[in-house]
């Protein structure tokens, strides 16, 4: 590239979502985020990823916070930076496919509460499962004057995933009406020179801006970013250094320094970034001290390239084995994962397919027999509820797990009736804002517990003293 042509690399900051999701199971509370927003707003980020993914579930379940309230507070704090979220196609942020009316309503409420960019992905890269969400973003973009649909391709390895596959998919995404494409490398599988090939190939196939998202799990992420930027990628995802590396993203400050004085110079102020890092560092130390941040997820595991296991899936698996007092089976489960993945049609491993494959692998190892017990989700995948995989699923496993069951070949959501009204009628007595219906839709039990907790807080009821059997509550 000649010195004259300047193409500053743009950066999406992940510390408010994926970084802490990957390292500390999404436990960063909203109140901790708020004091630093003003400084973060001054950096000049392309966007700040701060919502979606597991933030919704963790807020309700563990932090006893309303995720919609978090979004509104973040929107108030970021005056000029775009806010970004991660959205799982028809699964939204939950674990089952939802009817189109719920998908559309969720998109509408996300945009009206402050989200600018919705990164939409499907765990099988089945584009049929993304169309409803893309259409909804485009619809509300016209109404709200805000909203961008970014379609993310879950990057993975395997015979089926050729450069032609990625190029054709990129073309199809452009035809769908997306605003940009993200290469979502959730397990750190994209190595540097392959990044050059992939970005160059996709750039030749589409005019859409291309963003690259990866994790440091396998230790190559920074080098991958360097080659991708040289190949013309438009945006990269990074995390502030206290919550970077390991199963998180490369460090923001490191990437900023890397491109300094080159045509890709971000122009970011390292002193400002240092102040932001100083804010997050004591919290990281606290998480290390209380065990929330496990040193295991902070190193490099080159076995990732063999097992294709994303960081969140690793920590999930560790806790499942811990609960069963079977931590010694860790490596057996890692070996079992590629086999289960193959049986299920070689899907990319990303939420929820990663959890489904991981949990099934845990069961296979603990039971000592493959598919002796299959989870409800494994059955749903085999039935075709999650969509079409690039390769066919194992007929032998289908026959063992769901013998005689009819399989689905259409887009599963086409079989679903609208469900918003029904969901609303189920939770009406607890509804305090329109968005509550969506919280309930995604996590019925968890949301109900949260609504009851919220009501108790508002009425100053001490739930620990409540005589629930007789309905008597001390105030």
Provide a descriptive summary of the structure in words:
With 475 residues, the chain is an alpha/beta fold. Residues 471-475 have low confidence and may be disordered. An eight-stranded parallel β-barrel has the order 1-2-3-4-5-6-7-8, surrounded by five helices. The protein contains 21 helices and eight strands. The chain is globular, with a radius of gyration of 22 Å. The N and C termini lie far apart (70 Å). Helix 6 (100-112) runs parallel beside helix 7, helix 14 runs parallel beside helix 16 (353-367) and helix 20 (436-442) packs across helix 21 (444-458).
How is the topology of this model organized?
Layout: E1 10-13, H1 18-24, H2 30-33, H3 37-41, E2 47-52, H4 55-63, H5 67-77, E3 83-87, H6 100-112, E4 117-121, H7 131-144, E5 148-154, H8 163-176, E6 180-185, H9 192-205, E7 210-214, H10 221-230, E8 235-238, H11 252-258, H12 270-289, H13 304-307, H14 311-323, H15 330-343, H16 353-367, H17 376-383, H18 395-401, H19 420-427, H20 436-442, H21 444-458
Parallel strand pairs: 1-2, 1-8, 2-3, 3-4, 4-5, 5-6, 6-7, 7-8
> How many helical elements?
21
Fraction of helical residues = 40-55%
What's the shape? Answer: globular
> How many distinct beta strands?
8
Helix-and-strand structural type: alpha/beta
Keywords:
eight-stranded parallel beta barrel, 8 strands, disordered C terminus
């Amino acid at each position: 590239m000649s010195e004259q042509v300047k193409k500053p690399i743009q950066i999406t900051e992940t510390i408010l979502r994926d970084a802490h999701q990957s390292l500390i199971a999404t436990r960063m509370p909203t109140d901790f985020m708020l004091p630093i927003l003003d400084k973060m707003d001054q950096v000049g980020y392309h966007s700040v990823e701060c919502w979606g993914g597991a933030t919704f579930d963790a807020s309700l379940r563990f932090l006893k916070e309303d995720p919609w309230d978090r979004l509104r507070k973040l929107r108030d704090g970021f005056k000029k930076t775009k806010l970004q979220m991660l959205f799982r196609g028809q699964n939204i942020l939950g674990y089952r496919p939802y009817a189109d009316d719920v998908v559309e309503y969720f998109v509408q409420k996300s945009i009206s509460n402050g989200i600018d960019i919705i990164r939409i992905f499907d765990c099988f890269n089945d584009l049929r499962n993304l169309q409803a969400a893309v259409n909804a973003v485009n619809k509300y973009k016209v109404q709200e004057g805000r909203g961008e649909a970014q379609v993310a391709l879950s990057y993975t390895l395997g015979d089926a995933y050729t450069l032609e596959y990625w190029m054709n998919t990129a073309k199809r995404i452009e035809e769908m009406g997306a605003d940009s494409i993200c290469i979502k490398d959730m397990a750190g599988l994209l190595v540097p020179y392959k990044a050059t090939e992939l970005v160059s190939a996709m750039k030749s196939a589409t005019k859409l801006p291309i963003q690259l998202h990866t994790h440091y799990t396998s230790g190559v992420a920074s080098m991958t970013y360097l080659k991708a930027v040289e190949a013309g990628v438009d945006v990269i995802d990074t995390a502030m250094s206290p919550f970077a590396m390991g199963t998180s993203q490369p460090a923001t400050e490191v990437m900023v320094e890397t491109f300094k004085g080159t045509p890709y110079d971000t122009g970011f102020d390292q002193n400002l970034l240092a102040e932001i890092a100083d804010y997050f560092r004591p919290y990281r130390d606290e998480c290390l001290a209380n065990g929330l941040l496990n040193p295991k997820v902070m190193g490099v595991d080159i076995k990732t390239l063999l097992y294709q296991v994303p960081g969140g899936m690793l920590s999930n698996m560790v806790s499942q084995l811990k609960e069963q007092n079977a931590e010694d089976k860790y490596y057996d489960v890692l070996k079992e994962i590629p086999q289960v993945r193959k049986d299920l049609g070689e899907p990319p491993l990303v939420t929820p397919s990663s959890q489904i494959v991981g949990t099934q692998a845990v069961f296979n190892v603990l039971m000592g027999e493959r598919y002796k017990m299959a989870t409800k989700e494994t059955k749903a995948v085999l039935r075709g509820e999650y969509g079409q995989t690039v390769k066919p699923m194992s007929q032998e496993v289908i026959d063992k797990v769901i013998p005689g069951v009819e399989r689905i070949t259409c887009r599963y959501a086409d079989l679903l009736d609208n469900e918003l009204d029904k969901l609303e009628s189920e939770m009406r007595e607890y509804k305090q804002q329109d968005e509550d219906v969506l919280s309930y839709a995604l996590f019925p039990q968890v949301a109900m517990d949260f609504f009851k907790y919220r009501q108790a807080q508002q009425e100053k009821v001490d739930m620990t003293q409540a005589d629930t059997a007789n309905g008597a509550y001390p105030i």
